[in-house]
Please model this.
Amino acid sequence: MTKKLLVQSVFSVIAVLFLFGCATKAPMELPSFSATQFDTNMYDSKVDNFLVILDASSSMRHPYKANAKFTTAKAIAERLNLTIPEMGQTAGLRSFGHAPEVSKNLTELFYGMTTYATTDMNDKLALITAAGGFSPLGAAMDAAQMDFQNLSGVHNAVIIISDGLDMQKTIDQAQALKNKYGSSICFYPIQVGDAAEGNALLQEIAKIGECGFYSTADDLMTGAGMAAFVEKVFLSKKEMTKAERKDSDGDGVYDDEDQCPGTPAGAKVNAVGCWTLSHVLFDFDKAVIKPEGFPALDEVLVILEKNPAMSVELQGHTDNVGTEAYNMDLSMRRATAVANYLVDKGILRNRLATIGFGFKKPVALNGTTFGRSLNRRVELNPY
Model:
């Protein structure tokens, strides 16, 4: 188990205890989360130094979608921490507000500035247990001037997790931080809640930063949403030579472009490495396998016979003509048609799972007749 996954498992237990300990009403379950593990061999870090500023002021005790906003803010900070890859950055965690038992300071640097380590930041996040007090984001921005002082590197990021409410003079202090570090510093405010006042303030801070952008906690709760945020803020893909690029499953598609790693030897894949029955395309509104598709299915049969321990998920797809419900059913019928063909040839049915995706995963543009024909397909996912 990797360090990131271990921390994620520990955090999941802590998060459950935190939710039940702090909510005054039955809390709404937060979206499930699985942290993306970025391959650091494929990326360079765009950020030399970063600071997470967490709002722990009294307004964060108020509910948003049945949870205290502080609960959501901490979840965002923890999920962010689990997703950022350790690439030698200098990092810090600063909060402001606080319940008296957490800190009597308006703002406090709980972690850093030091070489970023997931486990260390997670431990310090755990110390910020309750919200309270005033909302001195401006004081945290002033203190950040010293946090970044004398650090090496020229790319600095400030991630602000807050509802943006009840804050005075914050704009001036954000501008002062920007003036001190100029183009080397970018602001990435994340709003917890949907108050118009908070939205306006945090949008203005992002604008002052010039190179950053505004986000919402709702968008970043899932693994995919957080991964997209982390990749955009922290990472840039490396330019690799052909000699450096790998094709681990030997399907002709490099790993950094392969959306379906682990395809079996001999499987014919599409441009993104997925095992696709490219010649088993279906007529419009049909789930009948055309005779010209039989040779491709027989190739699948050979691969399954050579790999008796292999099972496959048959994934049906459609074009976008018609309703979503109808196309979901049609895509399932197409997957089932392929399963029936293979069963008739001697493959055990329990080796063949079937699922329909409707028109949710096109591989070509649905705006053309040819594109729609390519989307009427079945893909195979071995497992």
